[in-house]
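Need tokens for this chain, all 120 residues.
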Amino acid sequence: MQHPGFGRQRGISLIGVIFFGGIMVFLAIFAMKVVPAYIEFHSLKGVIVDATRGKETPQQVRSAFDRYMEINMIDVISGKDLDITKNEKGFAASFKYTKTIPFGDKVRLEIDFAASSNDQ
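Here are the structure tokens for all 120 residues:
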């Protein structure tokens, strides 16, 4: 028996809502854990450029880098982790590190980051 006005019903079922809701929750948690690592890396790229600008010795570069790191409250690397080389403009510094992001008891994501003051 057909009811007048209903025609072919469209929409999403309760199981569909739960399924897509679960996917959205997973993506939101993933983003909340991964995005801060990329923001931190972006800050480090700016710090390394500022730390090498106008410095005359590798020690000055490391000291300036450590000061910037303390000001920005970033502790993933320090000045001693920098690879510093002399170039025609003064000094160039580079770094690389791995950020481990836990997603539970036995699941984690590792992201390798690397940057150089020449990358500007």
